[in-house]
Amino acid sequence: MGVLEDPGFQNREAWTLSRGATVLPLERAPSDDGVAFFPPSAACNAGAVSQTVQMPSYEVGEPLVAEVTYRAQGLYGLSLGFNRAWTQLEPTFDDAWQTARVCLGEAAYGGPVLVQLGPREQHPSCFDQPEGDIEVDHLAIVAADSGECPVPGEVLNGAAETNGGWKFETTGAAEAGFAQGVGLEATSGVRLAREANGRAAAWTRLSVPSVESLQSPALRFWWRGTGGRPFTFELGRFEGIGNAHLPLDTVTGTGSALNYVYCLPPGTHGNVLDLIFRTPVGDSTNPSQLVIDDVEIVSDARCGASTDVLDPGFDAGPTRVTGVKNFTPYTAAALRTEPSLSRTGDGGVLELLYSNEEALMSVETWVLVPDSSGDEGPAVGFWSNVPVGAEKPIRSVLGRAAVNPAELMVGGGWRRNEVCLPPEWSGRWFRVQWRLGEIPPTGTAPIDPPIRIYIDELELTTSPACRSE
């Protein structure tokens, strides 16, 4: 059990190939002959190389990792999936091969598991002249090292004791590490600090249980940051202090201790991820300090039970909005609980607020792309209420490449919007964003009272207006 057939890609018959992905048994590679190969067209259209493996239950097995040797050039990188739990691996450069170890979460255990290799996300070149390709030399499931992988429901050293679990990276004069007396109730905590310049990052690893083990999983932690200074919280896989990761939130310190709760998206359920904290990137001259403590995974009924998109009715307030990036200090996103603000008058709603012409922010969610239905292609629908007098445009965009921008209409109360999803990505997670403002921001005048935009009732559907294949 837990053994892949043909881990070196020398037998095409051992793998299921789709959308242009293939196996080249005679191709030279570092480990041995044979690679899984994704040409540019396959990398753009969710090509996949897959195999079903009989996996032991977590209780009777041992912690496992997937070890993959690959190179992914000219695009966003490689993805490795175990059923619906996908890990995104960074791109490579200069023809260099890279070996990554991926902790297997609970979704990868307990019976037949579909193991898939595919592209990370659509690259901007996919919409002009596709470029870049992926080669995978070797994929194997092996035993994890001691302490390498958390058990389901665990955060490695979530109590921020003075050794283990956490990793740190700094540049310039910044500092990062464990510190005594700075955490919850004067216990130890993780501390990031700088006086004038440099960057600091700290990250730990967590294992989100599957919904069969823990309903409505959420992330909860204690933090304190310098008043008026911005900090970034992220999820995913740490790829370096200067790289972007999947946004969890952009926050502003108050100087006081705060406890935050974030509902964990369905794509994280049964998966192992890094939780990343960073000092400001573009604010290098002001001193700041961030302290983290008491990180844990909990069950929170407000998060709901949706398995294809997080909190589609935006009813999880007053938990924090997951997936927020504030690029300027004049924006905020919140889950409002007043029924009168929602479209139907009986639930929650997402509020996006801005108070200056310089406003720039994005909010993203990940959806599991549905199958087409006959001539109807996959789509995501939602309702928006953009008031008359809104100073800045707000658009829906697709993917990391931010394609197919569609401006939300101003005035007229609640309006339904429909965004087509790429049918090639059915059964895969896909990023959907709302972007407020322009890049670069224009204007600096304050807006009083602030503009409030509302979004509600997100749904996955099919539409005759969307291509089905």
Q: How would the blueprint of this fold be written?
A:
Blueprint: E1 16-18, E2 22-24, E3 35-38, H1 40-44, E4 48-55, E5 64-73, E6 78-82, E7 85-89, E8 98-103, E9 111-119, E10 133-143, E11 167-170, E12 175-179, E13 189-194, E14 200-207, E15 217-225, E16 230-236, E17 246-252, E18 257-263, E19 272-278, E20 288-299, E21 324-326, E22 331-336, E23 349-356, E24 361-368, E25 377-385, E26 394-398, E27 403-407, E28 415-420, E29 429-436, E30 446-463
Antiparallel strand pairs: 1-4, 2-3, 3-10, 4-9, 5-8, 5-10, 6-7, 6-9, 11-14, 12-13, 13-20, 14-19, 15-18, 15-20, 16-17, 16-19, 21-24, 22-23, 23-30, 24-29, 25-28, 25-30, 26-27, 26-29
What is the second-level CATH architecture of the largest domain? Sandwich
Helix content: under 10%
Biggest sheet, spatial arrangement of strands: 1-4-9-6-7
- Radius of gyration from CA coordinates: 22 Å
Distance between the termini: 36 Å
- Number of domain units: 2
Name the CATH homologous superfamily of the largest domain.
Galactose-binding domain-like
Number of helical stretches of at least 4 residues: 1
Helices and strands: which structural class? Answer: mainly beta
The total strand number stands at: 30
Low-pLDDT segments, ≥5 res: none
Shape: globular
Mean pLDDT: 95
Top CATH class of the largest domain: Mainly Beta
Largest sheet: 5 strands, antiparallel
CATH topology (level 3) name of the largest domain: Jelly Rolls
